[in-house]
Design goal:
Elements (H helix, E strand, L loop, with lengths): L8 H6 L1 H18 L5 H7 L6 H7 L3 H20 L1 H17 L7 H29 L2 H29 L13 H12 L22 H20 L1 H12 L4 H20 L2 H30 L3 H29 L5 H52 L9
Helix pairs in contact: 2-7, 2-8, 2-9, 3-4, 5-6, 5-7, 5-15, 6-7, 6-9, 7-15, 8-12, 8-13, 8-14, 10-14, 10-15, 11-12, 11-15, 12-14, 13-14, 13-15, 14-15
Length: about 400
């Protein structure tokens, strides 16, 4: 493993590796949603295409499908050939495929570029997760995982806001925002160094608590739980606009404001992740996070007031920001050093599988129980998850 271990926030800010990984984290959230404000304009721009309506709506979720399919294989590549080349290649591919919509002639070509963008996100997220485990441990690792959620939220908020502004000039201009990755590349190239070869670092030896193959079963359960968590969380961006429209609000404006509140609340909450995990442990963090999300969905289900909709979004963002880094922390603890790339890839895939499955599962449910029933059901499921986490003995949760 590579060099120095960091144990303080002050030291983290001085470590170029930590800064570079935070920059990488800020890229991943912008992959899907950055072009959302441009979708109506793109549909009008390519109105001659008989499939324009469906193709424009596929542009946002398309990267998620690629990430879900490619991330496990990216993890194998990270373990075989190293994390650094995977990360740098992913950033270059991210900029090229993200900006491609500026010049591509039709929606089909743009859709293909969005699928390729998902490959880039898979490379970046997989390498980044493995490198956090390789570089840091203990408090430093927990702190950095919280910070990366904040980086994703704040980065997403800024990029979506900028996209909404430039889309007023041309629906193609939001694609230019992806060039931001090239500005980050020199810092990443300089700061991110490949950890010492796995063989020379004794990676073939077992880490305490992972001496046998039993870690795989626990890790698989963790990945499935993360997929379920993201499937529930993704109800907000996929179904909230329709709920607000059904209640008579200006859905475009209200949804943008609600998602902005969600991102900002999550970004702030994630800054305190390390302190929260230290105070109440992993089981406590899961209980707190799922309880907050359940309360948020209950607000959405029961009240037509826009103020409570924003409060619900803030609670959901806070809860999701608490549980998200916990999945990474537990995965890095469970997986042996030589399998951290694969673990990061599977964990990344589970996030995007949950996102991709969310509208497929929820849309048929709306026909039976309506939007209020859908969000109410989500609140009940999350409340049960919070209760299970609360009664779980903390001594059975690994401590780092």
């Amino acid at each position: 493993m590579n060099g120095m271990r960091l144990n303080t926030k002050k030291a983290l800010w001085r470590d170029g590796r930590a800064v570079a990984l935070l920059l990488a984290a800020s890229l991943t959230t912008m992959a899907n949603a950055t072009i959302s404000p441009a979708l109506p304009g793109l549909e009008r721009l390519f109105a001659a295409d008989p499939n324009a309506a469906i193709l424009t709506r596929l542009l946002v979720p398309a990267p998620s499908l690629s990430v879900a399919l490619v991330a496990p294989f990216a993890g194998l590549l990270a373990d075989r050939f190293g994390r650094r080349p995977l990360l740098l290649a992913g950033v270059v591919l991210f900029a090229l495929t993200g900006c491609a919509g500026l010049v591509l002639p039709d929606l089909t070509a743009i859709l293909v570029s969005r699928l390729a963008l998902g490959v880039a996100v898979a490379l970046i997220m997989t390498a980044q997760t493995a490198l956090i485990g390789d570089y840091f441990e203990g408090t430093a690792r927990s702190t950095l995982m919280g910070w990366q959620i904040s980086a994703r939220n704040f980065g997403g908020f800024l990029c979506i806001s900028l996209a909404g502004w430039v889309a007023q000039t041309s629906p193609r201009w939001p694609f230019a925002i992806y060039a931001l990755a090239l500005a980050f590349l020199p810092m990443m190239h300089k700061a991110v160094v490949e950890p010492l070869k796995l063989a020379s670092s004794g990676a073939g030896a077992a880490i305490p608590g992972t001496a046998d193959a039993s870690w795989r079963k626990t890790f698989l359960a963790l990945a499935l739980l993360q997929a379920l968590t993201n499937m529930l969380f993704f109800l907000v961006p996929t179904q909230l606009p329709f709920l607000l429209d059904a209640r008579g609000f200006d859905s475009a404006a209200a949804t943008g404001e609600a998602l902005g509140v969600l991102m900002l609340a999550g970004g702030v909450a994630a800054l305190f992740y390390a302190r929260l995990r230290s105070a109440i442990g992993y089981a406590g963090v899961f209980a707190f996070g799922y309880a907050a999300m359940a309360s948020g969905f209950l607000c959405l289900a029961l009240s037509p007031a826009l103020a409570l909709t924003f409060a619900g979004a803030a609670l959901i963002g806070t809860g999701y920001a608490a549980v998200s880094p916990t999945f990474v922390a537990l995965a890095l603890h469970l997986a042996p050093l030589a399998r951290r790339g694969l673990a990061g890839g599977i964990l990344t895939a589970s996030v995007f599988l949950g996102q991709f499955a969310s509208p497929l599962v929820s849309t048929p449910s709306i026909a039976r129980v309506g939007y209020d029933g859908l969000f109410g059901t989500a609140a009940v499921v999350l409340a049960v998850m919070a209760l299970v986490a609360f009664v779980t003995s903390r001594k059975n949760m690994p401590a780092l």
